[in-house]
Design a protein that fits this description.
Elements lengths: L2 H6 L4 E9 L1 H7 L4 H9 L3 E7 L2 E8 L3 E8 L3 E5 L5 E9 L3 E9 L2 E10 L2 E8 L4 E9 L1
Antiparallel strand pairs: 1-2, 1-10, 2-3, 3-4, 5-6, 6-7, 7-8, 8-9, 9-10
Helix pairs in contact: 2-3
Organism: Oikopleura dioica
InterPro entries: Calycin (IPR012674)
Protein name: Lipocalin/cytosolic fatty-acid binding domain-containing protein
């Protein structure tokens, strides 16, 4: 395991969402329709985070039928599918030895940043559409 992946080991495991703030506004700014937004804001997805060498894989499952997975290159970039099903460039950066920052570029929303940090044993996730300055935050507990 590389130095950076060792620092990320604390993120590994299964995390269930326990609260969210601003998600409806974030999804609306993303162009997601009312029905899908209501489904997304009512469910508590489970994220599975795995570190393997220099790869970070984040998988999610919501309400048993919505699921997906992307693998990121720690300290580098990779092509992934975003939540709008667009192929984008995703850079994965470790900041301050305790934050995972994913920077997605090339989609219809412009630059989107997703920051993950662990505080008080909980995983805090902030999603931001940079050009629109719209932010959603979610908190996950270990599941």
């Amino acid at each position: 395991m590389g130095k950076e992946s060792e620092k990320l080991a604390k993120f590994e495991g299964s995390w269930k969402q326990i609260e969210s703030h601003g998600l409806d506004e974030f999804l609306s700014a993303s162009g997601i329709g009312w029905m899908k937004r209501k489904m997304a804001t009512k469910c508590n997805p489970v994220d599975q985070i795995q570190i393997s060498g220099e790869n970070l894989t984040i998988s999610y499952t919501a309400v048993g039928v919505i699921s997906g997975s992307n693998t990121y290159n720690i300290g580098g970039s990779a092509k992934i599918k975003n939540y709008l099903d667009e192929e984008v460039d995703a850079e994965c950066v470790l900041e301050d030895d305790d934050k995972i920052v994913l920077i997605m570029r090339g989609g219809s929303l412009g630059e989107v940043r997703i920051t993950r940090v662990i505080k008080d044993g909980k995983l805090h996730v902030e999603q931001k559409i940079m050009e629109k300055n719209v932010v959603a935050s979610r908190v996950f507990g270990r599941s």
